[in-house]
Amino acid sequence: MRGVRTVAVAALAVLTAYDVSQAGEPKQGGILRVYHRDSPGSASIHEGATYSLNVPFMPIYNNLVLFNQSVAQNSVESIVPDLAESWAWSSDNTTLTFKLRQGVKWHDGKPFTSADVKCTFDMLMGKSQQKFRQNPRKSWYDQVNDVSPNGDFEVAFRLKRPQPALLSLLASGYTPIYPCHVSAGDMRTKPVGTGPFRFVEFKANESIKLDRNPDYFKKGRPYLDGIEFTIIPNRSTAILGFVSGKFDMTFPTEVTIPLLKDVKSQAPNAVCVVEPNNVSTNIIVNSSSPPFDNPDIRRALALALDRKAFISIMFEGQADVGGTMQPAPAGLWAMPREMQETIPGYGPDINANREEARKLMQKAGYGPDKHLQVKVSTRNIPIYRDPAIILIDQIKSIYVDAELDVVDTAQWFPKVARKDYALGLNLTGNAVDDPDQSFYENYSCNSERNYTNYCNKDIEKLFDEQSAETNVARRRKLVWEIDKKLQEDVARPIIFHGRTGTCWQPYVKGITVMSNSSYNGYRYEDVWMDK
C-alpha cells in the first residue's frame, strides 16, 4: 500500500508510517478521547521542556511555519506555511522575511498581526519587560538581532550571521505565536491561540479539554468537535482503558514494544505505529558538585554502560545506540557507526570497559571496600523510572551504590535546571532534527537546558561554525566531529535512542506519527472519526 512501511515486532506486525491520503472522505464531528501520561506543569508551551505540554496544547496554537503534519520525517523540504503565507531569505542569508495571513483572529476575537510575532520573540530573546518563568529554548535565538514588523502583515528576522536552521526551529511544535494582549501568567492557565482548537479547561491531575474553533482560518478544519485528555499516570490502567474502548487513542509514542503485544492481542483491530521518536535516554551529572566534578568519575559512569542490555530489556532489541543526534535512517545528521564505535564506552567489550571504569573509580578513592553512595534522580513516569532502575543495577559493577529519587513532572525541569541534583537519568527530546537545536539547547554554556554545567568554549566555536555553514555536506562532517567530541567529553552520556508505539482505534483517521521528532505532530486539524 502506498505510503506505508511495515516492520515486525516479535510476531506482531505494526505500521511504521501512516498515509492520510488512504483514509477516505473526512467526516465532521466527534470528540477525540486520549489518555495523558501525566499532569503538565502549566499550559504554556514556551515555558515547558516536555511533550507532555505539546500533545494537549499544540492544537490551540499556530506557528509562522510548520512541519507538514502528514509527512512522517521532518525536514526543511516538509515545512509549510501556517500564520505566514510565504517567506524569503535575503541574498546574504541574514534576513528572513515572512508575509503574514490577513483576517486571522485570536480565540478571544482580537486580530492577529505582526506585533504578536514581535512580542513572542522579544519574550523568547529576553528583550521584553514581561518575562517567561522558564525559557528553555532561549538559546535557539541567540543569532537573532531583532524581529522587525513592516506594517501589520510582514515581519523580518534580522540575524547576526547566517543560520540556515532558523526556519526549522520556527517550524517546531515548540514555537507557537503568543498574543501580545495576554500575559505570560494567563497563558499558563488560560491560553489563547489562533489554532484549530480552543482551550476549555485544565484540571491538574484529572483532565484537559479543548473544543473546535469555529473561526479557524483554514476553512473546513478541524473536523473534530473537540479533544479530551484524561490524565492516567499508571500505564497499565491507561492501556486497559484503550483496549476496552474508553479511549480513541493512546498517548502518542508512549506504548512500549512489549505493551504493543498486549494491545494487539486484546484489541486486534487497533492501528499501532512504531517509530523512532528522537528522544535520547541519557545520564545527567552535576559536574560542578563533588564528587562528579571529578572527570574520572564521570568517565567511569559512561564506561559502565551496557547499552545493548538496556535495549534488550526495554525494547526487545528495537532501539538504537547513538550519539547526540538521532541515529540513521530516521535521523538526518547521525555520525557513521564506524566513527561512533571508536568512542570510549561504545565498543563491544563491556567487561573491558568496566575494568577500565573500576580503575578510574579506584584512582578517585573508591573500590571494593569503599563504595560511592548517591541518589539517581529521575522523573516519576515509567519511561524515566524503568531505565533508571537498570542504570542503578549496572553501576554497582563500578563501586557505586545508588537509590532512586523520583520527582513529579511539574518539578522535574525546575529541579534539574537549578542543578538541584547529583546524578540523574534523563530523557532529552529533540524538538527538531537539526544540530542547532540539540547543540545550543543542551550543551551551550548558558542554556537553561544545559543541566550538567558542561561548558567548552572551543566546542561552542564549532557549534557556531556548523550553524553558519550553508553547504550541507560540509556541515554534516562538522556535526559528526562535534557529536564525537561531546561523547568523549562525557558531556551527557547517551544510553540509547528509543522506538515507541502509538495506537488508535480503527475508526480514527488522518493521524501521522513523526519519525524524527515526537514534538511536532499534534495539531490534530486533519484528524477525523469514521463512526
Which tags fit this structure?
4-stranded mixed sheet; 22% strand; disordered N terminus; 531 residues; alpha+beta
- CA radius of gyration is 23 Å
Number of helices: 15
Mean pLDDT: 93
Low confidence ranges: 1-22
- Widest sheet, order of strands: 15-14-16-13-17
% residues in beta strands? 15-25%
Proportion of helical residues: 25-40%
Q: Describe the main β-sheet briefly.
A: 5 strands, mixed
Provide the structure class: alpha+beta
Number of strands: 19
Mass-distribution shape: globular
Termini, distance in Å? 23 Å
Textual characterization of the structure:
The protein is an alpha+beta fold. Helix content is 27%, strand content 22%. It has helices at 51-57, 114-124, 166-170, 184-189, 235-243, 257-266, 295-303, 307-315, 337-340, 350-363, 382-395, 409-417, 435-443, 457-468, 472-488, and strands at 6-9, 12-15, 31-36, 65-67, 79-81, 84-89, 95-100, 144-149, 154-159, 197-203, 207-212, 226-231, 271-285, 372-379, 400-407, 423-429, 494-504, 508-509, 528-529. The protein has a 5-stranded mixed beta sheet. A 4-stranded mixed beta sheet has the order 3-12-11-10. α7 (295-303) runs antiparallel to α10 (350-363), α13 (435-443) runs antiparallel to α14 (457-468) and α14 runs antiparallel to α15. The longest helix has 17 residues, at 472-488. The chain is globular, with a radius of gyration of 23 Å. The model is unreliable at 1-22 (pLDDT under 50).
State the gist of this model.
This protein is an alpha+beta fold.
Question: Topology of this structure?
Answer:
Layout: E1 6-9, E2 12-15, E3 31-36, H1 51-57, E4 65-67, E5 79-81, E6 84-89, E7 95-100, H2 114-124, E8 144-149, E9 154-159, H3 166-170, H4 184-189, E10 197-203, E11 207-212, E12 226-231, H5 235-243, H6 257-266, E13 271-285, H7 295-303, H8 307-315, H9 337-340, H10 350-363, E14 372-379, H11 382-395, E15 400-407, H12 409-417, E16 423-429, H13 435-443, H14 457-468, H15 472-488, E17 494-504, E18 508-509, E19 528-529
Parallel strand pairs: 3-12, 14-15, 14-16
Antiparallel strand pairs: 1-2, 4-5, 6-7, 7-9, 8-9, 10-11, 11-12, 13-16, 13-17, 18-19
Helix pairs in contact: 7-10, 13-14, 14-15
